[in-house]
Amino acid sequence: MEEGTQNRQKPVTLHALLHALVDANGSDLHLAPDHAPLFRIDGYLKTIEPFQSVLSNDKLEAIIKELTSSEACSAIPESGSLDGALSLSNE
What we know:
The protein contains three helices and three strands, in the order H-E-E-E-H-H. By secondary structure, it is an alpha+beta fold. A hairpin with a 2-residue loop joins strand 2 (38-41) and strand 3 (44-46).
């Protein structure tokens, strides 16, 4: 392994974010462009390692497309937000 490769951040994917949320016993995930992902843990919004980098509009759009239909994505500019719920299996 090359020097410095251990400190690289994980790729920011919906799957990785949701598993980090579950691992931290969090209840909510808040995503916004030009902000780092926020995890609600014990009632407080926090950033957690390794997801402390700001999300670009393109990255956030890619995550949103994993979550929802193209119709819902197209409505986001009008409403300014997207709210939803997901459940993860114990696999």
